[in-house]
Amino acid sequence: MTNVTVWNENRHEQSNPKVREVYPEGIHGAIASFLKKADLNVRTATLDEPEHGLTDSVLKDTDVLVWWGHMAHDEVRDEIVEKVHQRVLEGMGLVVLHSGHFSKIFKKLMGTTCDLKWREADEKERLWVVDPSHPITEGIGEYIELEREEMYGEHFDIPAPDQLVFTSWFEGGEVFRSGCTYRRGNGRVFYFRPGHETYPTYHNEEIQRVITNGVNWTAPVKRVRPVYGNAEPIEKIENK
Amino acid sequence: MTNVTVWNENRHEQSNPKVREVYPEGIHGAIASFLKKADLNVRTATLDEPEHGLTDSVLKDTDVLVWWGHMAHDEVRDEIVEKVHQRVLEGMGLVVLHSGHFSKIFKKLMGTTCDLKWREADEKERLWVVDPSHPITEGIGEYIELEREEMYGEHFDIPAPDQLVFTSWFEGGEVFRSGCTYRRGNGRVFYFRPGHETYPTYHNEEIQRVITNGVNWTAPVKRVRPVYGNAEPIEKIENK
Amino acid sequence: MTNVTVWNENRHEQSNPKVREVYPEGIHGAIASFLKKADLNVRTATLDEPEHGLTDSVLKDTDVLVWWGHMAHDEVRDEIVEKVHQRVLEGMGLVVLHSGHFSKIFKKLMGTTCDLKWREADEKERLWVVDPSHPITEGIGEYIELEREEMYGEHFDIPAPDQLVFTSWFEGGEVFRSGCTYRRGNGRVFYFRPGHETYPTYHNEEIQRVITNGVNWTAPVKRVRPVYGNAEPIEKIENK
Amino acid sequence: MTNVTVWNENRHEQSNPKVREVYPEGIHGAIASFLKKADLNVRTATLDEPEHGLTDSVLKDTDVLVWWGHMAHDEVRDEIVEKVHQRVLEGMGLVVLHSGHFSKIFKKLMGTTCDLKWREADEKERLWVVDPSHPITEGIGEYIELEREEMYGEHFDIPAPDQLVFTSWFEGGEVFRSGCTYRRGNGRVFYFRPGHETYPTYHNEEIQRVITNGVNWTAPVKRVRPVYGNAEPIEKIENK
Q1: For A3-218, CATH number?
Q2: Domain-by-domain residue ranges, chain C?
Q3: Number of H-type helices and E-type strands within chain B
Q4: Tens of pLDDT along A71-120?
Q5: What pLDDT shows up at residue B236?
Q6: Is B106 left (phi over 0), alpha (psi -120 to 50) or beta?
Q7: Entry pTM
Q8: Given its phi and psi angles, is residue B206 left (phi above 0), alpha (psi -120 to 50 degrees) or beta?
Q9: Percentage of chain B lying above the pLDDT 90 cut
Q10: Residues of chain B predicted below pLDDT 50
Q11: CA-CA distance, C66 to B139, in Å (whole number)?
């Protein structure tokens, strides 16, 4: 069974009653709740726990890490980011949600600013499937419609995705590459755009399905990891 | 359970005692045999059966088609190729092996000549994993070594693979992109190089593991297929 | 100097006065006109000329072929398509415009149906640059806006582009991968969406700039072409 | 005219007579020398200069930066790396050579360890062209052969290249993705493997040709850079 850790900064929930109303158990609680129904072994971790809840033993025991953060990216300690980075390169899956595009871990994995356009205007979003063969789209129709969401628009400053799964349309005139996969080391990364804290996006069953699919898709492959460094020749090389 | 059809031209086995000795039940028989042990529902089909064994009902009932052909590519009837092509675009997985690079179906899906360099000289081949996160490499070490195989060398005239999984080294001085994945329509395609008919390559357990992984990886995703054609506007567009 | 041949089916211009009004010299004439100003050596060819204007000597002498077709795709003779295909694989650049997505040559190069959604409703289109480093975007801002165009929507049944350069937003709720590059053999292909025959799209200076950039980007690289077939070993392989 | 800065750590040249013999003017001197013949405006910079020779004004005035480093990666100051990173994202081209795979700037752009296998055993290397349409291969045959080089072997821990241009064969049994392109922000990156300090690799005319091509290919595209941040709606969104 895949071990999933849902990490949430959990700050908006403390300071904004509107967010608390939408997510009474926190965004992490909402996500953990639907993942548990999908035959996954789920725990949560938050910023204000010791080591942000990401101790060595938790990380070692995590197959897939889900990440939501926004207003407190800078408070995530660099040494924890290093450990998460190391674990991704070793094979741990990573699902980065919404404003997590600006998290230290995502920027470190991408090598770019991960900047974008944004606007809070209660706009309709429509996430079109552009790769209908991708396991992340299992059970989803041609598009997912969200009646109101925050807009994220291009240019999104990321490396070209290994696979582009979703592209969003927004009412106000923008598009966005909203479902992107990457490989980094032995690990797989899935960025998925929706989920502004003031909207009930994570209660949407199609969004839940995509995140669940994303967790399954990023789960590590069981294999021996590559060996690096000085190597003996495999073929006999004659003395020259 | 995934339904797999292993297709083999099955001609070398008839004319060449050496091949018959290596594969007494045919190449298709050898491949079907190890796939059956992997919790897959397997049947075989060959060139000289009516409709090459690929009737409408067989194709409709096939989740993944494995393809081995070599000396009789031209005898595969165009209307059968059309049907296989249509099924791949609908979502059927396709695993193309070795000399299948020159099959009508592979060339049709690629849009290129699929030409390459080759040499029969009992050379050592070493297939290096270049994407250690890919499910097709599950259970495989850093490389697979085949003591003797036919050489295939670059330039291999294919579109850039969506994912490059293996690259081969050959004793005589060549390299080859020997494990390549593609998406075409709703279907997934995996090309895997090894398997010249005079070598016992498909008895190699690591090769068996890769082909089994490839079958599982190309198995179709369950979802509604896209709709094409004239569309009604989703947003209200004012009369202009 | 790069030799460019602009091919146009040139049928709407004959039958539809509205199209003739927008493009009095034909779509090919309009395109040739702005390309000539860009230090390119330009000629035109149309469907109803002998061999569709694409004789062996014209093709041999063409570095980049621009293709516009729509209502008469089926009238393009297969043997001419074969020759164009062969020339692309040899290195000739190909710029496919708008409804050319359904041309025989584009479908042959892609290996898929190239189907899509469409709607004629005078909708606004906005082509967002998603790859700001790409030479095809030189001189273009963040997006190109076309006040009225035909809508093309996802899912667009193409292989994942090697490079996705533009993504379109449409007023009615759809998105579309509207600028896509591919390599096929030694040749480079650029698909660019805009240009429905009843709109003055090819008179738009930004669209002209993109097409000009596309021609320059697909122009062939000067090099010896790969050799295929039976090869001598380069390294000495000991007799076994 | 493109402004190129060739950066070299320039340490082996000071401590190892063998290297000084091969490159009496330093590796940077050798590279600058052949680039100057290619209609490029070239300067050099080295580690021990103030700010490593990469002052704000030099960086601002550099279109393409060529990077060679090995034994002193750690001595490159982080704030200089930040500035180079920023410039790449703004559009400056970057050509990273050989052991530069472990430079701070390359690791930062890749987001991975960039680790690999290596061996110093005077092995033959053959760099096969796998993308014959790529401008970086202009003027090059099917492969480049280097009689003796250091071996670099897979797994090379990099993100999947946007374009894989060369793959190397080594005498001792390894392969390596030896010519890789990436886009990061508005900038283009080319990694090219050859060039161990004790071999006369940068005197090889084909290697010189590839590096020159790489400089030209990574040169920035002239365009307005994307705007990020809070955006006004382009379409009128009705009050809700």
Answers
A1: 3.40.50.880
A2: 3-112+178-218
A3: 7, 10
A4: 999 999 999 999 999 999 999 999 999 999 999 999 999 999 999 999 99
A5: 66
A6: alpha
A7: 0.97
A8: alpha
A9: 93
A10: 239-240
A11: 48
What is the rounded distance in angstroms from the CA atom of residue B223 to the CA atom of residue D124? 50
Q: For the domain made up of B3-111+178-218, give the CATH fold.
A: Rossmann fold (3.40.50)
Residues of A in contact with C174 (CB under 8 A): 128, 169
Per-residue DSSP letter, D117: E
Measured in angstroms, the CA of D119 and the nearest CA of chain A are apart by 6
Does D154 contact B at CB distance below 8 Å?
yes
The identity of residue B158, as a single letter, is I
CA distance B23 to chain C (A): 23
Of the CATH numbers 3.40.50.150, 3.40.30.10, 3.40.50.880, 2.60.40.10, which one belongs to the domain with range D3-112+179-218?
3.40.50.880
Q: Are strands A3-8 and A41-46 parallel, antiparallel or unpaired?
A: parallel
> Rounded to whole angstroms, how far apart are CA atoms B115 and A53?
54
Q: Are the CB atoms for B119 and B150 separated by under 8 Å? A: yes
Domain C3-112+178-218 sits in CATH 3.40.50.880: yes
Distance of alpha carbon C203 from alpha carbon C181, whole angstroms: 23
Query: For tokens 């752009």, what's the residue?
Result: D109
Is B187 in the A-facing interface, judged by CB distances under 8 Å? yes
AA letter at D150: E
Task: Inspect the interface and report whether the beta carbons of C162 and B157 lie closer than 8 Å.
Answer: no
C chain contacts of residue A181, beta-carbon cutoff 8 Å = none
Q: What is the distance in angstroms between the Cα of D93 and the nearest Cα belonging to chain B?
A: 23
- CA distance linking residue D140 with residue D133, whole number of Å: 11
CB D89 within 8 A of CB A112: yes
ipTM over 0.90: yes
Sorted by sequence, the CB contacts under 8 Å of residue A16 that are 6+ apart come out as: A197, A198
Backbone angles phi, psi at B83, to 5 degrees: -70, -40
Size of interface A-C (CB pairs under 8 A): 58
Closest A-chain CA to D230: A118
Whether the CB of B28 is below 8 Å from some CB of chain D: the reply is: no
3-state secondary structure of D212: helix
Q: Does D156 touch chain B if contact means CB atoms closer than 8 Å?
A: yes
pLDDT at D172 over 70: yes
What gap in Å lies between CA B37 and CA A184, rounded to an integer?
33
How long, in residues, is chain C? 240
